């Protein structure tokens, strides 16, 4: 699946490992940086979503998205992203994301404008309070240095999904060029999307924030991850 992620704001809070671990499916472990787990809230513009070698579809290929995520690795030690939720203002995209990728897409009302500043507002269906963001890049652009916190939080090349009742775990390869990132100049930020998921409140301002103009992305077919689940027989996954 080909797509472009544009005008991203990466907000991250340091959290206790156990507060993340209790929300993960079997087969995944919390990935930490210097012993600390991180939860991210990432609003951005999704553009040009389409199967590879096919054109974009009007009304489906462009929408707004707001992710709540953390960082994990599987039994093979492959690092990646686990999405607690992916809010979007496109019901068809949400439905396809749930059915085709087993991702927790949620329908939301969203509005955004982009100029010198990006103004981004989201409210999940059934929730009364909106998450509001206002941000712009600041300073000079940079690429994340391997081994740095910047790199740990942004340069991830796999995503994980779980099919719930069957307890099957899936991994999808993600390909994109390295992010060009900037420090973030912010007037409004919100951790509300994490609370929408029933997660612990993310207190205080984010401990890490950066902005990226975006990247072109290819997400490849999900593959099943083999692991031994204590609740099933070891040969469940063939």
Descriptive report:
By secondary structure, this protein is mostly beta strands. It has a single domain (2-236), classed as Beta Barrel (Acetoacetate decarboxylase-like), CATH 2.40.400. Helices cover 11% and strands 49% of the residues. It has four helices and 13 strands. The protein has helices at residues 17-21, 91-101, 149-154, 192-196, and strands at 2-15, 29-30, 37-50, 63-73, 79-88, 105-114, 118-124, 131-143, 158-162, 169-175, 180-188, 208-219, 223-225. Strands 1, 2, 3, 4, 5, 6, 7, 8, 9, 10, 11, 12 and 13 form a 13-stranded mixed beta sheet that branches. A hairpin with a 6-residue loop joins strand 9 and strand 10. The longest helix is centred in the middle third of the chain and has 11 residues, at 91-101. It is globular.
List keywords for this structure.
globular; 13 strands; 13-stranded mixed β-sheet; 238 residues; mainly beta; Acetoacetate decarboxylase-like
């Amino acid at each position: 699946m080909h797509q472009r992620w544009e005008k991203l704001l990466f907000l991250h809070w340091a959290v206790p490992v156990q507060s993340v671990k209790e929300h993960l499916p079997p087969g995944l472990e919390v990935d930490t940086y210097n012993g600390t787990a991180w939860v991210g809230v990432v609003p951005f513009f999704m553009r040009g979503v389409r199967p590879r070698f096919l054109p974009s579809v009007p009304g489906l290929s462009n929408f707004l998205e707001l992710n709540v995520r953390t960082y994990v690795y599987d039994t093979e030690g492959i690092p990646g992203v686990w999405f607690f939720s992916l809010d979007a203002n496109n019901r068809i995209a949400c439905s396809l994301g749930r059915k085709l990728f087993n991702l927790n897409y949620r329908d939301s009302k969203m509005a955004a404008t982009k100029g010198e500043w990006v103004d981004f507002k989201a409210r999940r269906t059934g929730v009364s309070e909106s998450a509001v963001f206002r941000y712009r890049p600041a300073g000079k652009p940079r690429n994340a240095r391997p081994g740095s916190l910047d790199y740990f939080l942004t340069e991830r090349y796999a995503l994980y999904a779980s099919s719930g009742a069957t307890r099957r775990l899936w991994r999808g390869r993600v390909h994109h060029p390295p992010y060009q990132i900037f420090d973030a100049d912010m007037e409004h930020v919100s951790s509300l999307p994490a609370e929408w998921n029933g997660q612990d409140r993310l207190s205080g301002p984010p401990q890490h924030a950066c902005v990226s103009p975006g990247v072109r992305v290819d997400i490849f077919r999900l593959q099943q991850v083999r692991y031994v689940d204590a609740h099933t027989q070891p040969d469940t996954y063939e």
